[in-house]
């Protein structure tokens, strides 16, 4: 398999290629075999690699001291993109803004709508979309072409978003008394799973923005002007949100290979 991979004369199946490249990432022995195979069985490729190395060596040597000062691999989580901080900061900022507006708003009788209740179900969608967006990730092409890209990487980034947004909402809702986790947590997870499922068809950014726009137009804005908690966020609707979460999760599992081609 390594010989065929080095020569490039036989195109392996997609799953075989993925497994081979994922194995090469973690196995130094097989990387050595690949280097030997390229040197002996693919002289054109070896010559191309040597030419590129010779052209890049002066530039890399000149940039090495500055890069070493600006980037510290041991301080950066291995599974997060180097641009994770901006979109996580955006998610945190939106969450704090919703909490602030909910805290300074005039008190309303129990059962009426608060801004936090209305935006919490869809608050993670923007950050989830940004975590897998070409314009917002300058190394998107490099990331998407690696053997471990696709749904596993997207799920890790989605988990990072939820790990920032959900605790802040829980803490803020408890401190302000404007909302309870039962009103928004399950809908939020259901929206996230639905966005991932639809994203495998139309792209994650389009799916997240479409769900966000639909929620604001059909639920959040009318409920805010009517000053009441919408019917879909009443406790009796939680089984429906659980069903939507299950359907979205199942669709993501069925469509798990689609993100490898997006």
Q: What is shown here, in short?
A:
The protein has 262 residues and is an all-alpha fold. It has twelve helices and no strands. 72% of the residues lie in helices and 0% in strands.
Whole-angstrom Rg: 24 Å
Q: Helix proportion of residues, in percent?
A: over 70%
Estimated structural class: mainly alpha
**Beta content:** under 5%
Low-confidence stretches: 71-79, 106-111
Q: What is the overall pLDDT average?
A: 76
How many separate domains? 2
State the separation between the terminal residues, measured CA to CA: 26 Å
SSE order, one letter for each helix or strand: HHHHHHHHHHHH
- Which word captures the global form? elongated
Number of strands: 0
Number of helices: 12
Sketch the major β-sheet: none
Protein name: Zinc-finger domain-containing protein
Transmembrane segments: 80-106, 112-132, 153-172, 184-202, 209-226, 238-254
Keywords: Membrane, Transmembrane, Transmembrane helix
């Amino acid at each position: 398999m390594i010989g065929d991979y080095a020569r490039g004369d036989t195109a392996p199946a997609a799953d075989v290629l993925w497994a081979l490249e994922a194995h090469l990432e973690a196995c130094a022995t097989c990387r050595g075999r690949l280097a030997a195979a390229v040197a002996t069985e693919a002289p054109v490729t070896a010559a191309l690699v040597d030419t590129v190395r010779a052209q890049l060596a002066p530039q890399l040597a000149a940039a090495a001291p500055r890069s070493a000062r600006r980037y510290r691999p041991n301080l950066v989580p291995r599974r997060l993109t180097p641009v994770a901080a901006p979109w996580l900061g955006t998610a945190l900022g939106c969450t704090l803004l919703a909490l602030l507006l909910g805290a300074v708003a005039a008190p309303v009788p129990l059962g009426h709508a608060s801004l936090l209740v209305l935006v919490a179900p869809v608050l993670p969608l923007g950050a989830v979309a940004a975590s897998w967006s070409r314009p917002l990730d300058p190394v998107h092409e490099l990331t998407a072409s690696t053997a471990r890209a696709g749904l596993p990487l997207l799920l890790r980034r989605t988990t990072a978003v939820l790990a920032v947004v959900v605790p802040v909402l829980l803490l803020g809702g408890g401190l302000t008394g404007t909302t309870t986790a039962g009103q928004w947590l399950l809908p939020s997870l259901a929206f996230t799973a639905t966005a991932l499922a639809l994203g495998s068809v139309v792209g994650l950014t389009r799916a997240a923005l479409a769900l966000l726009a639909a929620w604001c137009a059909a639920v959040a804005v009318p409920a805010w002007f009517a000053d009441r908690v919408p019917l879909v966020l009443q406790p009796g609707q939680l089984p429906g949100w659980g069903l939507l979460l299950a359907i979205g999760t199942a669709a993501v599992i069925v469509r798990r290979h689609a993100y490898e081609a997006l």
